[in-house]
Amino acid sequence: MTHLACGLDFGTSNSTLAIHAENAPRLLPLEGDEVTIPSAVFFGTEPQDAFLVGRAAMRAYVEGATGRLMRSLKSILGSSLIEDRTQVYKRRIAFSEVIRLYIAELKARAEIAAGAPIDHVVLGRPVHFVDNKDEADAQAEATLLRIAREIGFSDVSFQFEPVAAAFDYERRIDRERIVLIADFGGGTSDFTVVRLSPDRNVADDRARDILANGGLRLGGTDYDRTLSISAFMPTLGHETLQTRGDLEIPAGPYWDLSNWADIHHLYDPKRLIEIRHTRQVAQRPEFIDRLIHIIEERKGHSMLIEVEAAKIALSSAPAYQAALDWIEAGLTVTATRDSFERTTARLRERLRGASLACVAESGLTPEAISAIFFTGGTSQIPNVREAITHTFPDAQVIDGDRFGSVGLGLAIEAKRRYG
Ligand SMILES: Nc1ncnc2c1ncn2[C@@H]1O[C@H](COP(=O)(O)OP(=O)(O)OP(=O)(O)O)[C@@H](O)[C@H]1O
Ligand SMILES: [Mg+2]
Q1: CA angle at 227 for the pair 226 and 230, rounded to the nearest 5°
Q2: How confident is residue 48, by pLDDT bands cut at 50, 70 and 90?
Q3: Does the 4-174+402-418 domain belong in CATH 3.90.1150.10?
């Protein structure tokens, strides 16, 4: 039986897996016919220990199944929390174990789709899992390596996600060019300056063509957080005052509710006691009631799902109204693109700075960049694109397969390394 090699893009928000067959990389279906799968898991309490991944996990949660939803697991890689155990129904389980279960499920599904065992893998990784901390960064990669071995991959290696995206784009070009790859994902933004050419083939050693890599831990989930805090949390009482003095009520719960990985902290019974206490001293207790309702109903993720939907809508519309009847009859929140762009101006500047730093590191001037290749879901935010296109005004703008480029490029790399 043939044993296959694959590229695996374990993303903060979505994952893909691709193999190289019949001279081209191909994404494998991982959930029904879908070749992308949300990086989400759901541990149900009824039936006990039901384990769901992807859209099915999101759906079970949104439809009200009791259990625990987890997203953005990749952002825990490289943090000290990775081996912490977290309560999932009646058992406690390490975050690294949750990632292991998720990736093992992807591998199993891919093997069914491919009809053969997949033994070798090139795993994508952001240029930096963690900013400015080499040790944590190495730890994140080591954790992923260990997980990949544990679930049965015999050969495991890594490639930077934007370099993989470059190899996918290279299949489409007809002349040599210097390209800035900009991959704006859910958790990180990554850049590569690379020399691409139609004459290179998968057997070539490409190290000399990769002129610089850079990136930072800033992605779509940071845009979710900012939109949540500025547009949604005020309706739950954020930045309202206490009855005495001009002190605001504590902000902690609002930040937890705006961060995928922190929502579950709010379900600690002690937190609810504190928030009920806040309600007693709040000038707008009716707003705090909404917050209490969300926590009591374990609907924290539903709130952030609403925020994310608003963010996505603002990519193509100047304003968006979210209907939040599930919190309170008639409750709506309006988000506008103007305000979203104002409140995320600092994020935009950091992205712009990182793209310039990457080009500077390549030793080239900005004018030498002949094309910008955008990939990743967050590249659809107009303001994020402008941050880059205004910085490199002469470069041609090219859009990749936003959710598939990295996985496809990793499969090209897998072919190169494992044959
Ligand atoms: N139309 C859109 N406008 C704005 N943001 C979008 C849009 N579509 C998707 N997104 C955002 O893109 C992000 C997911 O992108 P993607 O799947 O490329 O990330 P990822 O590969 O999982 O993350 P990473 O590469 O950082 O690990 C999410 O934050 C999602 O909300
Ligand atoms: Mg990605």
Answers
A1: 80
A2: low
A3: no
